[in-house]
């Protein structure tokens, strides 16, 4: 079978790029110990409501002035449904699910996680501008998926 010279060159570039990307992912995983944001820590999904700190989800201020926010994501709501933080606050979000896979996305920020039962997902963002940010579930999780949202108010 005759393959045109340019066609062969194009296929070679494709295969080489694939090998480069796979090598980059492998190196990041093995050398820098990078993991997806949903794989930080495990939790028993049947005992989320009894497992600290998810037994008291909400906002906690740390001694260095930053915040931690613990969320329980379940069909079809987030707990807490609203948090209020001062402008400039650095917040680390932790989220887990006792039922199905949910999304945890705050548009216009870098926070966009998959929340998988049995795992704790985490992401950090510094809220420089005041306003009310919407926290939405962006993984289809059932009949009430479109109602699953919460608010992050920055004053
Ligand atoms: Cu939870 Cu969609």
SSE blueprint and pairings:
Elements: H1 5-30, E1 41-42, E2 58-61, E3 67-74, E4 77-79, E5 82-85, E6 90-96, E7 102-105, E8 112-115, E9 119-126, E10 131-136, E11 149-154
Parallel strand pairs: 3-6, 5-11
Antiparallel strand pairs: 1-9, 2-3, 3-4, 6-9, 7-8, 10-11
The structure holds dinuclear copper ion.
CATH superfamily of the largest domain: Cupredoxins -  blue copper proteins
Bound molecules: dinuclear copper ion
In CATH, the architecture of the largest domain is Sandwich
**Biggest sheet: strands, sense, closure?**
6 strands, mixed
Poorly predicted sequence stretches spanning 5 or more consecutive residues: none
- The SSE order reads HEEEEEEEEEEE
How many helical stretches?
A: 1
Your description of this structure?
The chain has 2 domains: 1-35; 45-154, Immunoglobulin-like. The mean pLDDT is 93. β3 and β4 form a beta hairpin. Strands 1, 2, 3, 4, 6 and 9 form a 6-stranded mixed β-sheet that branches. It has a 3-stranded mixed β-sheet with strand order 5-11-10, with no helix packed on it. It has a two-stranded antiparallel sheet with strand order 7-8. The radius of gyration is 20 Å and the shape is elongated. The longest helix has 26 residues, at 5-30. It has 1 helix and 11 strands. It has 155 residues and is of the alpha+beta class. Residues 76, 102-103, 137, 139-141, 145, 148 line the site of dinuclear copper ion.
Labels describing this entry:
1 helix; 36% strand; binds dinuclear copper ion; alpha+beta; 155 residues; 17% helix; 2 domains; six-stranded mixed β-sheet; 11 strands; Immunoglobulin-like
């Amino acid at each position: 079978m005759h393959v045109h010279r340019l066609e062969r060159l194009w296929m070679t570039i494709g295969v080489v790029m694939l090998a480069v990307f796979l090598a980059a992912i492998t190196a990041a995983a093995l050398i820098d110990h990078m993991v997806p944001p949903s794989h930080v820590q495990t939790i028993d999904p049947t005992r989320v409501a009894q497992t600290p700190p998810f037994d008291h989800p909400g906002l906690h201020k740390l001694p260095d002035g930053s915040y931690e926010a613990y969320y329980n994501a379940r069909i079809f709501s987030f707990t807490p449904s609203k948090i209020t933080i001062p402008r400039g606050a650095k917040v680390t979000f932790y989220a887990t699910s006792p039922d199905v896979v949910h999304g945890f996305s705050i548009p216009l920020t870098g926070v966009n996680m998959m929340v998988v039962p049995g795992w704790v997902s985490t992401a950090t963002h510094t809220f420089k501008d005041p306003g009310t940010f919407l926290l939405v579930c962006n993984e289809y999780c059932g009949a009430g998926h479109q109602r699953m949202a919460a608010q992050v108010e920055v004053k």
